[in-house]
Amino acid sequence: MTAATGRRVRLLAPIASIRPGPVDTHALVDRLRLTLVSAGYALAAAPALALAIVLVLSVPLGLISVGFPLALAAVPAAAALAGVHRRVSGALLDTEIPASYADTSDRSPLGRPVRWLRDGARWRDVAFVCFSGTGGFAMSLLPPVLLAAPVPYIVGTIIDPGWLWVLLDGASGLGLLVWWVVTPPLVRARAMTERAILGGSRLAELERRVEQVIESRGETLDLSAAEIRRIERDLHDGAQARMAAVGMTVGLAGKLVRSDPDAAVALLDEARQTTLDALGDLRSVVRGIHPPVLADRGLAGAIEALALPIPLPITVSVTVTERLPDPVESAAYFAVAECLANTVKHSGATRAYVRGSHDGTRLRLAVGDDGCGGADPTGSGLTGIARRLAAFDGTLTVDSPTGGPTVVTLEIPCPT
What we know:
single chain; alpha+beta; 5-stranded mixed beta sheet; elongated; disordered N terminus
């Protein structure tokens, strides 16, 4: 906690500013934080340099088979180190640095290095460890060195208070001034360089985005086709069959109206009830397309109504005041409905919750419970939700360790 602000200091909080001023307690704490992060960057240079040497040697040594075991050890280690730096640098820049490695799970151990040679993301890892062990090390070493430089001079002054130590103390004061000025831009430059190396080129990002769009479009078309077949089946087996029965019943009543009026009246009553049942079927089909409660009460009210009949205490806290586009509201509503259905069926929970908000650019919903955990993100239910959200560039994140609790987070880009 800082004495001036009373707020908890986060080590990996985004870099708010690289300006030298103002000079206050908050700025001092922020520079000390960034110096600690920079020292961590510098310490990571040792394993990075070792990995860079092994990775570079593994390519020519692969011709005599020695490089294969080297690559099998060094490539995943470089990916792990790069993953840590992606999270750290991404947090400092308040952005996400994605990893897009080619899938090699279906390859044999000997086949993976061959596939890695053609994977641009792996070569970016090589570039990263080379940078981290050389130029990145120099950039990151400077802030902690500038901060620690006055320490031996101060100790010398205390032990032997001569004019030379006083002169050195003055020079180290200039070093502290340099530390104050250069620390934020140096740490930011290091983070931006890592983002440029690990994030890939703009062309590669566009290619990855096109692949995602093609995949999500195909999944959306499949879901649309399945939805149309479901509606056709529900109409055929429900309302259509009942309306056909109404026609037959009314026709039979018309034949009996003179010979047996009582029987005709009974048939007409039956036809009336069948008509009401057909209307109920039609309402069910409409609710499956776009629930009327969404149009009447919006997303927050619809989720509250969704939670009411569920035999489980559910706390709903959804702060979405503005109306969102109908397709987005519908996708979010059915996604929450599927999550709550999974909670009731599989979790063994005693309570659950739905929390959500819209910050003007993104809708975020979290469905959690205190159940046994172990939810499988590749299961049919959660996979269906992910496909539904993918049509809107949405994402599904499942955090469900064995023993619980389970939290399913849904995010949909939705600028207003």
